[in-house]
Amino acid sequence: MKSIIWTIAGSDSGGGAGIAADIKAIESFGGHACTIITALTAQNSMGVEAINAVTIEVLESQFAALESDMPAKVIKIGLLANIQQVEFVAAKLAHFKANWPLPPLVVYDPVAVASSGETLTEDDIIPTLKNTLLPLVDVITPNTQETQILTGHYLIGPSAVRDASEAFFNLGVGAAVIKGGHWDYPQGYCVDYCAVPGQEYWLGNEKIIAPHNHGTGCSYASSMAACLGLGYPLKDAFILAKAYINQGLKVSVRIGQGIGPVAHKGFPHDLADFPTVIEAGSWLGKELELEPWDRPVVAEFSPSETQQLGLYAVVDNCDWLKLCLENGIKTVQLRIKNSDTPNLAEQIQTAVALGQQFQARVYINDHWQLAIEHGAYGVHLGQEDLDTADLVAIKAAGLKLGLSTHGFYEMLRAHNYQPSYLAFGAIYPTTTKDMTGQIQGLEKLKHFVPLMKAYPTVAIGGIDLIRAPEVAATGVGSVAVVRAITEAADPLQAISQLQQAIKV
Ligand SMILES: Cc1ncc(COP(=O)(O)OP(=O)(O)O)c(N)n1
Ligand SMILES: Cc1ncsc1CCOP(=O)(O)O
Ligand SMILES: [Mg+2]
User: Fold this and answer.
1) Which atom of ligand 1 lies nearest, measured to the CA of 433?
2) pTM
3) CATH architecture of the region 310-501
4) What is the best residue among 335, 438, 471, 483 to mutate for testing ligand 1's pocket, by most ligand atoms within 8 Å of CB?
5) Ligand 2 pocket, mutate which of 311, 312, 314 (most atoms under 8 A from CB)
6) How far is CA 229 from CA 97, 223, 251, 425, 483, in A?
7) Ligand 1, atom 11: nearest CA belongs to which residue?
8) What is the topology classification, in CATH, of domain 4-287?
9) Is 38 helix (H, G, I), strand (E, B) or coil?
10) Tens digit of pLDDT for each residue in 73-102?
């Protein structure tokens, strides 16, 4: 079933912002948009002529109609035209959060000032917003000006952005997404910030010079709301919203005599529209004073000799490794999770020798120092290893590098390193490893594979003989399995059947 997203916002008679933008963005991501209209604005591409706030009775009737039949997974809020509306909406949200079996997430785009410059709300609305609404907000998506109005922080640099997000947390907001479209820092770049207490994400891309950008704020917040409704983690919703806006800005056109609307072009599919995940150690990271600034981002690892790594067996000892190689598997990983395994170094040495003997690609999981020491073909690392492994040494030793990713954010982070292959997981639930909250599903895999078509790609997690054909049909170059081989009644037959099943 489609996820239901309510948008509580004003209508824009010009069709570029507010409710119109929200519906288009939500539907682009496959959500179902329901509307609660707070004001009928009279505006066009030249500006706002009138704001006709609806009465509380009209607001109430819209809430009542939806609440009884179509409860929301996510509620996105845009224009609230006066203090009474803020108080009324806040009371409703408090009620939903306390009483609904599945409390809705609340995304608030604090539309304080229209892009055309006209004030859309009453001047004295701010204290009421802070006291009643913000404590109920899970994600706030202000621009520079709105951040300044709500927090008092003038965004002159990265530390001020952090201070502003802290100020939002102190007001009871769960997560702050501060949009950098209006600040030119670093010069020529557009940098966006997303934070929850204790964790921050920075995204950047070259500024897109697009005069027709009406409705970008509404569309950004609605995209985030839709992605959260689809169950994407915040950092992935952040990436996708940014890509959606970039995509729309690049093809926006004049409609009317003034500023045209950002275009709505569906789920973003072109890597060129996706922002860069800003790493500490990259030049953008240094500009933003991200720590640790002295850990360089090492890129361009030894490329794979093939895009199609085929059936990929992930095993925890050399007996299994040998059996897989003897039965024709050309990509195998030695994954020994216990670092105290007494003969770890010998096993790695044996695995490397077996790989050479069978002219196969043998990757060593985690133990990159021993992999270098024993001249392994490659290493497979996880996202957390990117913060600790000596990538300079791995690259210098000529080892191939495979990287795990779980979602859009991690995929784009891994892309910064230009590894030898990218793995996407877990595609299905698995008992081999705790992947709680990280199950991607086939639909996301269908997005990942074409976006990362420059790399050999691997799908892992819960794949068996039945699922292997649908996984292979996504175009992924390799299917990695543990239990489908190691727990098969007849492992040799399983290997042969899996090899057949992934031929598309
Ligand atoms: C092919 C492949 N993909 C993903 C993983 C998972 O690696 P990682 O994230 O490092 O987790 P652990 O395997 O170390 O638990 C993998 N091993 N192989
Ligand atoms: C190591 C790993 N990383 C993501 S899922 C997974 C385990 C895959 O095991 P299985 O094929 O048995 O589901
Ligand atoms: Mg690992």
Assistant:
1) 15
2) 0.95
3) Alpha-Beta Barrel (3.20)
4) 335
5) 314
6) 16, 10, 26, 20, 32
7) 382
8) UDP-N-acetylmuramoyl-L-alanine:D-glutamate ligase (3.40.1190)
9) strand
10) 999 999 999 999 999 999 999 999 999 999
